[in-house]
Specification:
31% helix, alpha+beta, 223 residues, Aminopeptidase
Length: 223
Amino acid sequence: MEYRRITNIDDELFKKMHRLMQEVFPPEEVLAFDLWKEPLEDPGIRVFVAVHEGEVVGATEYRYYEDFNVAMTDFTIIGKAGLGIGRFLFQKRQEDLMSLAAESGNELFGMFAEIYDPYRAEHHEFGGIKPMDPFVRREVLSHLGYKRLDFPYVHPSWNNDGEAVTGLDLCFLPMDDNVKELPTDLIVKFLRRYYSVLSNKPKSWYEMIARLETIETAALLPI
């Protein structure tokens, strides 16, 4: 299996990846094809695919924020069962992030991720691909060490239509298991940076940010 980076919207591997995204994710979670041009060309956004026998069977997008010394996993797609795609992507991503942090003179502090809560989210089939089932994914991410940040989370729709998406938790994977909470200052700065690309965020998102600014820390809880 190959770990290949995509930096161009005209790359045939990107076209295959975008089709896979449309098969797996609900429509409001998939950025339109043409809108990917700038993100793919942005050196800070890292999009990689797992290629098996010429086909895109998995993908992951993530980024490293040098000034915060944290990463964000935008998404991970496992397109087929029985190939070890999830472990492959996780290991390759970790190696890349550790290298990026080391280049900045840091040891990676941790990684954010938005994780569906299948106990309260709408039911998503995720293309009928069982490894993508929200119950399976949540348990796997728990095994990896992700923890839920203790506040009600609102995610702005990537359609940039001002709609709020609920049913997800903002989670964090600390590299040190002894980390039990995060400063809300870090969370707020990260969320403002991460969603700066969306000009039309819902009112409830701004209210969430305002609430976070009234407290100093947010606990990391089991998922």
